[in-house]
Amino acid sequence: MSAAAAPRHVLFVTGRLAEPALRATLSAMTPPFAYTVAVLRITVAALMTTPWIARFLEVPADVDLVMIPGLCEGELAPLQSRAAASAGEAVRVVRGPKDLREIPEYFGRAARAADYGAWDIAIVAEINNAPRLTPARVRAAAESFVAEGADIIDVGCTPGLAYPALGDVVRELTGAGMRVSVDSFDPHEIRTAVDAGARLVFSVNSSNLDVASDLGASGTRVVVIPDFGGGIETLDATLSALERWGVGYYIDPIIEPIGFGFAASLERFAEVHRRYPDAELLMGVGNITELTAADSTGVNAILIAIAQELGVRAVLTTEVIPWARGAVRELDIARRLMHYAVTTRQLPKHIDDRLVTIKDPAVLEYSEAELRALQASITDANFRIFTDREAITVLNAERFVRGTDIQEIFDQLDVTEPTHAFYLGKELARAKLALTLGKTYRQEGQLSWGYLTPPDEPRREHLRVTARRTRADASDPSAPSAPSAPTGTTAARRDGDRGA
Question: Which domains does the chain have, with CATH numbers?
Answer without folding.
Answer: 3-114 (3.40.50), 122-344 (3.20.20.20), 368-494 (no CATH)
